[in-house]
Amino acid sequence: MRLSKDFTIEEFTRSITAVNHGIDNTPSAVHVANMRNLARKILQPARDELGIPIYVSSGYRCEALNAMIGGAFNSQHKSGEAADLQCADNARLFNYIRFNHVFDQLIWEFGDDESPQWVHVSLKMAEARNRNMVLKAVKEEGKTKYINITGENGQC
Question: Which residues of the chain form beta strands (DSSP E)?
Fold first, then answer.
């Protein structure tokens, strides 16, 4: 099932962990609507503008799958509102989303000062509820720490 021209529900729900542990990662109609909203309002415009493939490395996660991988209790992946993305130029993708779209959270996930390892983006259905929060994930003493960079100008 297509969520937009270049994004499918299969790539949003694909999970080797779910398959290996017999977890049914089938989304509800509400989850599909949230994934479609994210794909149509952010992912597809980013794909069209950048002109390069964008891959969903983690999209929708049912409760059991999210728990199995150690996802956050309040993860927006569980509602279909979030996706982790990778492409040939993750920094360009991050900055395109940051400066051209409304979003709830945009996270520069690890990597270095030149490029994130991947980009996390979330979008709530009700645009007025989106926080436009920009974060950078780093490891400190083996733990993940999120630095709020919402107010900074330019690149991370």
Answer: 54-58, 82-87, 105-109, 118-122, 133-140, 143-148
- Residue 75 placed within a domain: yes
pLDDT digits (tens, 9 = 90+) for 77-135: 999 999 999 999 999 999 999 999 999 999 999 999 999 999 999 999 988 899 999 99
Q: Which domain holds residue 103?
A: 9-148
pTM score > 0.85 for this model?
yes
**Position 154 in a domain:** no
**Any idea what the CATH number is for the domain that residue 91 is in?**
3.30.1380.10
